[in-house]
Design a protein that fits this description.
Number of helices: 6
Largest sheet: 7 strands, antiparallel
Order of helices and strands: EEEEHEHEEEEEEEEHHEEEEHH
Low-confidence stretches: none
Radius of gyration: 21 Å
Distance between the termini: 43 Å
Mean pLDDT: 90
Length: 301
């Protein structure tokens, strides 16, 4: 692998050359990155946040060296950037980054195609399908009024398999949906439903407390009913994901809009939902802290 050095001191090394669309000025990019200082200190990482970073290339949102370094990358590619202080923060201290620091980034380009805005609704074509291939999760034709109601919540690695998925909620259907990005084109791939797929319609499950007779089905204590009601009220905000209790199953955390409660959705290995439970602030904090994830609380509150 060769390293290109520009006249302004920026060093670029392609670790993996992508096969998809090329990043150019004006494109909305979705990237993963790890940022380190010369001594190896990590100052920023999307992997720690568990969510890729989105920005418009050429809009001056990121430092000049980063913009120049990702220009020309292709979707699916990985690059190492060594950015001199003059193309970073210069003689200014920026957070944990000392003045006159050279910044090192390893960047992965996921997409050049979507300028999705949080809390904005979209029509998804081709439509999402559930495990059995039913469009929008309906056995028969889905109502027309639910089709444009997919509210963008964010992008996370739901399965913890390195494949990132867009996550949407739909207040019309009372369900939520996920879909991965095609690693070559960077487009939403809603064809990957069924076993082993990353496209799914989520939201229906049986509360374990209902199953064992502790809670009456459809009562106020049935978490499944509460979950669907919150979806229909547009009352949930996606926060983060992880296997916080170490049992091998991913857990998606959501907060209610007013932060009065937090939903912990436990997923099957195929990332369809097993069950969910609501926690108040103390319960959520104690659960995460006791499992060694105290820093995650700040990502949720």
């Amino acid at each position: 692998m060769t390293t290109d050095v520009s006249s302004n001191g920026l060093k670029i090394q392609d670790l993996v050359v992508g096969q998809g669309p090329e990043a150019s000025s004006g494109n909305p990019l979705i990237v993963n990155y790890l940022g380190t200082l010369d001594d190896g200190t990590v100052f920023d990482s999307t992997y720690t946040l568990k969510s890729p970073y989105s920005f418009q290339l050429g809009a001056g949102i990121v430092i000049p060296g980063f913009e120049q370094g990702v220009t020309g990358m292709k979707v699916g590619g990985k690059r190492k950037l060594v950015i001199p202080p003059e193309l970073a923060y210069g003689d200014q201290i920026h957070g944990s980054i000392p003045a006159n620091s050279t910044l090192n980034f390893e960047v992965q380009l996921l997409s050049t195609s979507y300028n999705l805005k949080n809390n904005t609704t979209y029509t998804i074509n081709p439509p999402f399908k559930d495990y059995d291939g039913n469009e929008h999760g309906y056995l028969n034709e889905a109502p027309e009024d639910i089709k444009p109601l997919y509210k963008y919540q964010g992008i996370l690695d739901v399965n913890n398999d390195g494949i990132y998925e867009f996550i949407f909620t739909n207040k019309g259907s009372g369900r939520w949906a996920t879909s991965s990005l095609d690693p070559i084109t960077g487009f939403i791939d809603s064809s990957q439903y069924g076993e082993g797929g990353s496209t799914r319609i989520v939201g229906i499950y049986e509360d374990p407390l209902v199953a064992n007779g502790t809670v009456e089905k459809d009562s106020d204590f049935d978490s499944s009913k509460t979950f669907v009601n919150d979806l229909k009220l547009d009352n949930l905000i996606l926060k983060t994901v992880g296997d916080f209790d170490g049992d091998g199953f991913q857990e998606l955390y959501w907060s209610k809009v007013d932060n009065t409660a937090y939903l912990r959705a436990v997923m099957h290995a195929d990332a369809n939902i097993q069950y969910a439970n609501y926690q108040n602030l103390d319960q959520m904090t104690n659960y995460l802290t006791s499992n060694g994830f105290a820093d995650t609380v700040a990502l949720i509150v």
